[in-house]
Each structure stands twice: as C-alpha cells, then as structure tokens.
Amino acid sequence: MGKRIAVCSADDSLVHYTDYYAKMNGYPLEVKQGPYSSDSTSFAEVGIPGLTFARITQQGTGSIHSYKDVIEHMSERVLNEDCVFISEYVKNMANAFVIPVPTKIPEKVKEDIDKMFARDLIKKDEK
C-alpha cells in the first residue's frame, strides 16, 4: 500500500517531534508540514493543530477509495505495525506532562489551506 507519511497542519516542532519519534522507534515515515485532504485540515481551519498518518502509493498504482479497496489487499503485518506505532505515538502525546508542541496554526499552513480550497483566488476576486 505504499509509503507511510505524516502531514502536520501545525507548528514545525510537531514535524520534528514526529520525525524524531518515528526514527527512535525504527518506523519508516516521511513527515512534512501543510494541509492534507483529511480530517486534520478541518481541525486546522478552526485553529486546532492536526496530524494525519496515511499510506500513499505512486499515482496509478493504488486502489484506495475505489471498489478495489478491500482488506485482502492489506498486509496484516504492516497494518499491525501501523496501528501499534500510531497508538503508541498518541499515548505518548496524550500522556505528556507538558504538550511538547505549540497549539497554534502557522500562517503558512493557513495560507496553504486557503490555496487548497481555492480561497486565495476568491480573495483576489473580491479585491
């Protein structure tokens, strides 16, 4: 099902924290900052930082979100690895004595969300 990614609609420190946490646990993960077409963007739009974990494939090679998207195409071992990693990540973040990252949305992420929904074009038209 492709490579593992994490997309943070939050401060750069969440990108660094997530990347470091994955490396410390031997979990292959590409981490970046910005919006992603998932629930985390809806949270970021109202000021709540978010993080999306996903699996992506090369264009034309995956069958996600189609009638071919069935459990038989999943590897039980890899699915288990993903669930264990994400569960432990969430548990560590939730049980942190102090939240390890700022709880604000950077202006660049807000701008990227506007571009994602073509609001930047609407704003130009309104001027």
How would you portray this structure in words?
The protein contains five helices and three strands; from the N terminus they run E-H-E-H-E-H-H-H. It is flat and about 55 Å long. The model has no long low-confidence stretch (mean pLDDT 86). The chain has helices spanning 12-24, 39-45, 76-94, 107-116, 119-126, and strands at 3-9, 30-33, 50-56. It is of the alpha+beta class. The protein starts with a strand and ends with a helix. The protein has a three-stranded mixed sheet with strand order 2-1-3. 45% of the residues lie in helices and 14% in strands.
| Parts with pLDDT < 50 across at least 5 consecutive residues | none
Tally of helical runs: 5
Largest sheet data: 3 strands, mixed
Task: Specify the oligomeric state.
Answer: single chain
Series of secondary-structure elements, N-terminal to C-terminal: EHEHEHHH
Mean of residue pLDDT? Answer: 86
The global form is: flat
Strand order of the largest sheet: 2-1-3
Number of strands: 3
Radius of gyration: 16 Å
Helix content: 40-55%
* Beta fraction: 5-15%
Indicate the topology.
Elements lengths: L2 E7 L2 H13 L5 E4 L5 H7 L4 E7 L19 H19 L12 H10 L2 H8 L1
Parallel strand pairs: 1-2
Antiparallel strand pairs: 1-3
